[in-house]
Amino acid sequence: MKEISMPRIESGGNKKNEKQASFAEEFFLAQKDFYRHYAGDVSIEVRPASEAPQNVSTMGIDLEHGKMYVNPVFFEDKAYSLDKANFAVLHEYEHFLELKKLLDNENGEKIWKNHQDKLRKKKRYAIFDNCFDDVKMNRSVLQRAPVLEKTEENLYKENLFASRDFTKLPKHLQFSSALLREARLPEEECLIAPDVREKIDELRNKKSGSGVGLIDYATSPYTPMEMRLKLQEKYFEPIVDKFFEEDVKKKQEEQEPKKGEGENSGEQNEEKDSGAENEAQGQKDKKQKNKSASKKSAQKENGEEKREPQNPEEYFQEEYAEYDKNNPHAVPIEDVEKSAAKYIEAKKGIKSIEDMSKEAYAKAEGVTVAELDEYERFWHEIEDMKNPETNEFVIEELRAMFKKIINERKKKKYVPKYPTEEGEILAYPAEAVTAVKSGEREPKVWETVEAKERPREMYGDFDVTLVADRSNSMDGTKAIEQRKAAALILEALKDFCAELEEARKDIKYDLNVRTEAWSFGDEAQVEILKSLSSELTEKQRVYIYKKLADVPGNSTKDFLALEKIRDSISDEDLNKLKEGKLKKIVIVMSDGMSHGADKVKEICQDLREKGVTVVGVGITKGGASIVETYAPDGQVCEKPGDLARVLGDLLKNELKDL
Questions:
Q1: Where in the sequence is the domain holding 422, given as residue range(s)?
Q2: Which has the closest alpha carbon to 220: 648, 641, 544?
Q3: Greater confidence, 424 or 602?
Q4: pLDDT band at 405 (very low <50, low <70, confident <90, very high)
Q5: Separation of alpha carbons 263 and 271, rounded Å
Q6: Residues 400, 401, 403, 404: is their CA dihedral positive or negative?
Q7: Whole-model pTM?
Q8: 20 to 30 A Cα–Cα from 170, which one of 302, 514, 550, 637?
Q9: Residue 201 shares a structural domain with residue 248
């Protein structure tokens, strides 16, 4: 999204300033709760410019204290609707959140400084970076606020990119602009040079082994800034340079004199100076003067002296100036760099009590504050996932089932039932008097009790084992969605454990819930990520989160993980399975054909004979073979984005018997 500058608020106590102040108050009052919900982990808070320590005419950022200041007056001047204004604010918020996350990384400061140095030296890179990063920022906004999808479309069509014709721009600017506009308005193809179109199509068709597109992955909200920059440098900047060199060559050719122009001038001068008697000498002089005339002609245009620029980017000063005019930084880059420098320095200096407490907690848990913050935001995204069939939050559906299970297991007790015409307890004496005085003979003011029946036989233990695919075909979207699905199940069952513990004193039919997590790929990836237990520590959360993002395996040896899981079941648990006291389910996720399908079938049969439920979930159509390999409990989730919901439904189905 193009960054829009905001007009400076005039000083003084006139009516215009009063109106502006009133507008700002109303704007933030209306959006206060929305911004708080959107921020989620509150690592950066959106505040009105009036609270900033210094004048903010557009937007301001204070990374050190986690505040983004907004002057909303420009929305009124631009005639933006409230939805468009919100989108602009959230877009800039995502820019600063991305920067903060980068600076929180170990090498973040170095990456940031090197990147800024590169953008200062090459304006063409700065323009491309702004366009390409805007794609990611807009996707980040819609990922957390999908209700603004139509708003973004209108913003681009009506305000930011009313025209789709870029043919008058140099090719390297056509490339950057078309990538952005078509990413946000895919139904409208831009008008650009044929070779620029060819390169854009080539990039769109570049996919990983699992089918994830390069552009889609590079601009994903989940792709870290440092990874985006690496992909830019490897795949996109060489194309920018290619078109830039062609544009420079074209500019140079345009400045050369037209064929014959210098020659005619030289001939006229030659006739005056040399005369007809020395034709040979005249021809020699003519060539020299032609050369001189050509040089002067190239140096003069509209009476102004022109020179060969030392930096070829000077050829495009007018185009770059026009771009800056239409795309000014919402916060001057100098201010962003100052804020980043202060934030970096503050991290080395004195910390607040809140920061020290958070660091102490992180240290005790064996993780870093940055890792905690990153996981917290990741979990907020999972909490916002809805079941499209019910329009309910997936995690809340699971929690509702947990409550139902706990209630069914509580000790038999009398439950009040009221109001009734007769009973053991007078619950509403005042109402009784009033009713009798008014002539009502049998008012409903009594309370009685009734006994609830409980099932006689129930499982005493419930184990869930997740087995994740870390083969390299899982890179990109599939790895992200698998990580979400695993977190949903582990976190939901951790909540279940907490609720069981709280209600333990009232439970007659006790229940213990445990989880474990494994992975597979090559033999190196066949490992236990979380041992079987009822706990889920911060260290375990972060470890699983990181491990499932790493998918280096070149094969799909799920049978090795299943073999280890089978062999790790204790004799005590085998007896519980046999006696019907333990319910155990193993859920395997994979996007491809097993490299030991027959072995998988053999182990699954063995586990099922022992009383273990084994379910295979294929991710995308590429994992369709899992239906046959894990029959009769194999299924396919065709859309990676549905994986967490599918696992949630699986868990609900297994919970019904508890």
A1: 414-451
A2: 641
A3: 602
A4: confident
A5: 12
A6: positive
A7: 0.51
A8: 302
A9: yes
